[in-house]
Amino acid sequence: MAELREKWSLKGTTALVTGGSKGIGYAIVEELANFGARVYTCSRNENELQECLDIWRKKGLKVEGSVCDLLSRTEREKLMKTIEDVFDGKLNILVNNAGVAIHKEAKDFTKQDYNIIMGTNFEAAYHLSQIAYPLLKASQNGNVIFVSSIAGFSALPSLSLYSASKGAINQMTKNLACEWAKDNIRVNSVAPAVILTPQIETAIKV
Length: 206
What we know:
This is Tropinone reductase I. By secondary structure, this protein is an alpha/beta fold.
């Protein structure tokens, strides 16, 4: 890894990673920071976030963060205003990582379930990408990464809404990649299989 870092560096770049206090998001934050990027992250849980920030600071990593409920449009806009101020109007990397899964049969999902899953997994990612667009364009080297899932391509049991949200993410990735290429903004999605994170561990216990 040390040899790789000598060949590849993100020094001088800025990144926003949503849901960075645990799981995949935590690993992404740490990896980007280890390669020299200035990273900002957010979480709904203030205690978890502060614990993570303390760990990263002790490691000498340049990571900042704040509390944000991504289901709230107002809080998303506030987050992006903070990013604009902290990073002087330019953002190189946006990682739409935050996500939630609720395991139920399709016939049992409620309106609240729908709002939580689609609001967190799709609406928040779409809106953040929209309002980050001026900052990404200003960087002249913008990158948007959506954390999708194999559930967006394959039918998995008890995950119909989650799968729908990730399928929407996959299609949005294609559209934004075409629309924003002229602005030097690359748009990609990553579709992992099952990764043992706190979210998965909770689902297994249930």
